[in-house]
């Protein structure tokens, strides 16, 4: 692990391989460990960088400074420190929001965009988003982070053969700083690209799961509004597709990268 001072915080990251850069951005309440099944696969052909976003893992946990916009500025400053001019951004869930914002705000940095079980408007998801914000906020305030970590992990990895995945993810989530998790969550749910989505010119792959929290039709709808996007659906997978179906995900991403 290494640390870089960027945008007034310390960002912890891992850096493997050589070649074109893949920047891997994890989900809410998790860490760069989300990508353990991708790093060894893609570092054979690419320079693969996985970092802990602000408030997560071993990166700085500010008291109040959170939000997708700040995380995007962190990533830009991080790349500048490493003198990386372009990368393929691969963002899972919350990491997908950061990747989307990077493509909207700083398209010159984004060679390709890969969005994994995420969306462009967390603040405009209708009843699903409203219920998620209400229920998770109430759960956090009344029961705490450890029970929430257990519930989230079970929902993502409910099968008997997924017990090790479930326990590993639960541990990552449970180890969050409560304030950092809470503020990352509420600021994420207030974020959205709106009309900026249709202006993104970047070649984009959206990867969805057939059993994700949001339906396939949700991804199809926003992909249809993008200039240069395609959609791949991974079967027999839930929200954490990079973890529960790593082989299928890796092959889909490899094909996308090879088709450039």
From TrEMBL:
Q: Which Pfam families match?
A: Abhydrolase_1
Got a GO cellular component term for this one? membrane
Q: Name one GO molecular function term.
A: hydrolase activity
Q: Which UniProt keywords apply?
A: Hydrolase
InterPro entries on file: AB_hydrolase_1, AB_hydrolase_fold, AB_hydrolase_sf
Could you tell me which residue ranges the AB hydrolase-1 domain spans? 21-166
Protein name per its UniProtKB record: Alpha/beta hydrolase
